[in-house]
UniProtKB/TrEMBL annotation:
GO terms for biological process: proteolysis. The keyword Disulfide bond applies. CDD domains: Tryp_SPc. Keywords: Disulfide bond, Hydrolase, Protease, Serine protease, Signal. It holds the Pfam family Trypsin. This is Peptidase S1 domain-containing protein. It comes from the Eukaryota. Residues 1-16 form the signal peptide. The lineage of its organism: Eukaryota, Metazoa, Chordata, Craniata, Vertebrata. It comes from Latimeria chalumnae (Coelacanth). The keyword Transferase does not apply. Residues 20-251 form the Peptidase S1 domain.
Length: 259
């Protein structure tokens, strides 16, 4: 990505290089909306179940993907099945029509899954997360939580779901010359980890920034090359700005594959 560091995992012999830094293991199934998006069985991005048939993630998560893509719901471990998992193939995916791969503007995507019964079975381990009901701003100093399987300090994907608390940063501060220097738009949210050196990273793209007592306010889009750079905090696509588009896609989709 141009001047930016997209946070999905590039599948290669060398593997991923960095990840959720300074997080902790989440309690099993405490984030029942989390989705592991996998390409040829390898985790590449996170996502959030927002409807029984629909997952919200980042548009940049599907760049020139080869091999089958699956959505795994109800997971805690990437390597060990606990009996709670539900695995789905993709029926269709819908990146925002104005997504720009260089600047990562409008970096948001809806993925529709399919199964014999057509939708996920909601239970204590698999639940949807709410999205904003209308357009609005996530105010500075809002306390949020993020979870993902991104790589950790040992430079490998985390086998267990990790979580991290973050605080939203004022957009003017985030866009100052000391920080992102104008690269952040009004359709984005900046948030810093607690502590500031803690941050999501590669493999965490597409995961939800959950604020306001359980509302997915953001979708992880990008960070700096060094995910621990306190002057380049992680940036999320602000979901509230896309509520009309989300409702339109979900309401009118025939489920056909976008590409």
């Amino acid at each position: 990505c141009f001047r930016l560091f997209c946070l999905f995992v590039f599948i290669s012999e060398g593997g991923a290089s960095v990840g959720i830094i300074g997080g902790k293991e989440a309690a099993k199934h405490s984030k029942p909306y989390m989705v592991s998006i996998r390409n040829s069985k390898s985790h590449i991005c996170g996502g959030a179940l927002i409807k029984e048939k629909w997952v919200l993630t980042a548009a940049h998560c599907f760049p020139n993907i080869n091999g089958p893509i699956t959505l795994v719901l109800g997971a805690h471990s990437l390597s060990r099945r606990l009996g709670s998992e539900q695995v789905f193939k993709i029926k269709g995916y819908f990146p925002h029509p104005e997504f720009k791969s260089l600047s990562l503007e409008n970096d948001i995507m809806l993925v529709k899954h399919t199964q014999l019964d057509g939708k996920a079975k909601l239970n204590k381990d698999v639940k949807t997360v709410a999205i904003p009901k209308k357009k609005g701003i996530t105010a500075a100093n809002t306390k949020c939580n993020f979870a993902g399987w991104g790589t950790t300090e040992d430079k490998k994907l985390s086998d267990k779901l990790q979580e991290l608390n973050l605080t939203v940063i004022d957009i003017r501060k985030c866009n100052s010359t000391k920080f992102w220097n104008g690269e952040v738009t009004k359709e984005m949210i900046c948030a810093e980890g607690q502590p500031k050196t803690a941050a999501p990273c590669r493999g965490d793209s597409g995961g939800p920034l959950v604020c306001h007592k359980g509302v997915a306010a953001g979708v992880l889009s990008f960070s700096a090359g060094d995910c621990k750079d306190v002057f380049k905090p992680p940036v999320f696509t602000a979901v509230a700005n896309y509520v009309p588009w989300i409702n339109k896609i979900i309401g009118h989709s025939s489920g056909s594959t976008h590409k």
